[in-house]
Amino acid sequence: MARFHSARFSLSLPFPDGPRWRIDDHKTAMLRATHAATESVVELVMWHEEELMNRAKCEERAREKGFGERAGDEVEDETAQFPAGWDTRVWIGAEQDANKTSTGHLFAFASFIRKCLYFHFATKNASIAVVSDRLALARLRVFGEVRLDSFDVAREKH
Fold it and tell me: pTM (2 decimals)?
């Protein structure tokens, strides 16, 4: 899978069928990528807070910012330490509209000291099995392979 590097958020993430994704990392507060062929969208934003954070506080702040309104019936709700060392909640849900089109969502809210990360993947298809497969791919191979740039902590010299 092709990887996209966001200098703004100091991370990279893979996209299946990489060149066919349209990625915007500048027009809004979040990185937004769309894949027309699969009616899929990825949204990601990271920000700093003044206080110490945890996944629940980051989820609350994300909702205050207008990110992360869950949709559909819950399929899975898990906590994880991903990216490495981060306190993360992953929520997966699915819904079906009146035309029998299924939509799947994967939301992740993560915290690390005073940083918060919000990730959302959404996809549509007439087949719930196809939506389910795409959600699994997004969980394991897209969000599951987000890589943060390394950083050095400045230390005082004595």
Answer: 0.93
